[in-house]
Specification:
Helix content is about 80%, strand content about 0%. It has about 260 residues and is mainly α.
């Protein structure tokens, strides 16, 4: 390393405006290098849109009397509901990896020794993971929106605003799942964190929602309250927003606390 590069590195390390984008970019590159995450996220977020609309189109072509056309609002809504479930698995896997990847790879100590703040090291994991997931969500939203208006439909076609709202709802759902997994992944080991978050999301949460008395405390109930066309009035919009914020911020604070106190 030359004297000039050393001086530039020191300058960057003392300039937060230049350091944070650099660290976030490094976090994004670490996630991209994991080919398993690339393919699993592609399969869980983008592929269902392509396969789903292809199957619906084929069914209508083979049996038009019983199978409805693939386009329209109804199938678009069903597509996003399904993506919110399978895409959550991808968001959880990415979140756990981002939360404990450095420790699992044995490089956490090396990063701490450089003198960088532990809070900064944790803080860039969130934007890095969001930047990783965003292209997949955007691609799925574009494909679903184009298919819903380009393919024949038996009812009304979705408006541009409705398509944006559905895409935003999917992004918000995956963001909350990613934040929860990131926080838990920073607290616990990878396999334990993955099992715990998946069990909470797909086993315990549906059971609690079935009770019907804890909707205001669960992020799934809050998300269903603010989604387009929702008929769920068990939770007020204000309480739903507060629940989503809490389920996003509290896991991140817990993860930051653990990272700041973790032995290098």
């Amino acid at each position: 390393m030359t004297t000039a590069s050393l001086a530039a590195d020191r300058s960057t390390s003392h300039n937060p405006r230049r350091l944070w984008p650099r660290l976030a970019g490094a976090e994004l590159m670490k996630l991209r290098k994991r080919r398993g995450h690339f393919w699993s996220t592609l399969v869980l977020v983008v592929a269902p849109v392509v396969v789903g609309y292809a199957v619906l189109t084929l069914q209508h072509a083979v049996d038009p009397d019983h199978a409805l056309p693939a386009g329209g609002i109804t199938n678009l809504r069903s597509t996003y509901e399904f993506l919110a479930q399978v895409g959550m698995v991808a968001a959880i896997m990415v979140g756990v990896t981002a939360g404990g990847g450095d420790l699992g790879a044995g490089v956490f100590r090396e990063l701490v020794v450089t003198g960088r703040s532990r809070i900064a090291l944790f803080g860039v994991r969130f934007p890095g993971g969001i930047l990783f997931l965003a292209p997949y969500v955007l691609a799925a939203a574009v494909l679903a929106s184009v298919a819903s208006v380009a393919l024949p439909s038996s009812g009304h076609q979705p408006s541009t605003m409705l398509m944006v709202e559905y895409a935003a709802g999917l992004g918000l759902a995956l963001l909350t799942g990613f934040a929860l997994a990131l926080g838990v992944g920073s607290l616990l080991s990878g396999r334990v964190a993955v099992g715990l978050v998946l069990a909470w999301q797909f086993v315990l949460t549906p059971l609690l929602l079935g009770i019907g008395k804890l909707d205001s405390l669960l992020v799934a109930g809050a998300l269903s309250r603010i989604e387009p066309g929702s008929t769920n009035d068990s939770v007020s919009p204000a309480v739903a927003v507060l629940a989503i914020v809490a389920w996003t911020v509290i896991p991140l604070l817990a993860g930051a606390w653990r990272t700041a106190r973790r032995d290098a």
